[in-house]
């Protein structure tokens, strides 16, 4: 079982955990991919967090970058972030290619907010 999560258009399969996108969708799906760093972060998650992360990735594949609660990052155009538990899932999009590259940021990473007064 590969750690990367990729999907094609219509009827795709997300390889991690065999999660399937709905084959009856009449919409064009986004291709999603985890960066190598995201693959490492994903493997470290517990089972419940993995399920939630997979659900977010499936939502991205079907709905595109505008997930509920997602915020476009001001400093980086076409880069978005969405929180789940203590983590942020950060992703870059290419609208012309309908491609999303996903990274995860753990609470202690440089993408996490700095403490007040730091």
Mean pLDDT: 73
> What's the domain count?
1
Net shape = globular
What sequence of helices (H) and strands (E) makes up the elements? EEEHHEEEE
- CATH top level is Alpha Beta
Strand content: 25-35%
Total beta strands: 7
CATH third-level topology: YaeB-like fold
- Using only C-alpha atoms, the radius of gyration works out to 14 Å
User: Distance between the terminal alpha carbons, to the nearest Å?
Assistant: 42 Å
Number of helices: 2
Structural class determined from secondary elements: alpha+beta
Strand order of the largest sheet: 3-7-6-5-4
| Architecture per CATH nomenclature, i.e. the level-2 architecture | 2-Layer Sandwich
Poorly predicted runs: 1-26, 112-118
User: Superfamily at the CATH H level?
Assistant: RelE-like
- The share of residues in helices is 10-25%
The largest sheet is: 5 strands, mixed
Task: Indicate the topology.
Elements: E1 13-14, E2 19-20, E3 31-34, H1 36-44, H2 47-63, E4 71-72, E5 79-84, E6 87-94, E7 99-105
Q: Would you summarize the structure shown here?
A:
With 118 residues, the chain is an alpha+beta fold.
Describe the protein's architecture and organization.
The protein has 118 residues and is α+β, with helices and mostly antiparallel strands. The protein has a single domain (13-105), classed as YaeB-like fold (2-Layer Sandwich), CATH 3.30.2310. Helices cover 22% and strands 26% of the residues. The protein contains two helices and seven strands. The protein has helices at residues 36-44, 47-63; strands spanning 13-14, 19-20, 31-34, 71-72, 79-84, 87-94, 99-105. It has a five-stranded mixed beta sheet. Strands 1-2 form a two-stranded antiparallel ribbon. A hairpin with a 6-residue loop joins strand 4 and strand 5. The chain starts with 12 loop residues before the first strand and ends in a 13-residue tail after the last strand. Mean pLDDT is 73; it is low at 1-26 and 112-118.
């Amino acid at each position: 079982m590969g750690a990367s999560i990729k999907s094609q258009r219509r009827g795709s399969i997300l390889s991690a955990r065999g999660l399937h996108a709905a084959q009856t969708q009449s919409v064009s799906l986004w291709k999603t991919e985890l960066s190598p760093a995201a693959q490492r972060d994903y493997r470290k998650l517990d089972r419940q967090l993995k399920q939630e992360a997979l659900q977010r990735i499936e939502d991205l594949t079907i709905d595109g970058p505008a997930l509920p609660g997602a915020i476009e990052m001001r400093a980086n155009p076409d880069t978005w972030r969405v929180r789940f538990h203590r983590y942020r899932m950060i992703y870059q999009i290419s609208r012309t290619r309908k491609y999303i590259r996903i990274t995860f940021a753990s609470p202690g990473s440089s993408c996490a907010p700095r403490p007040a007064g730091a």
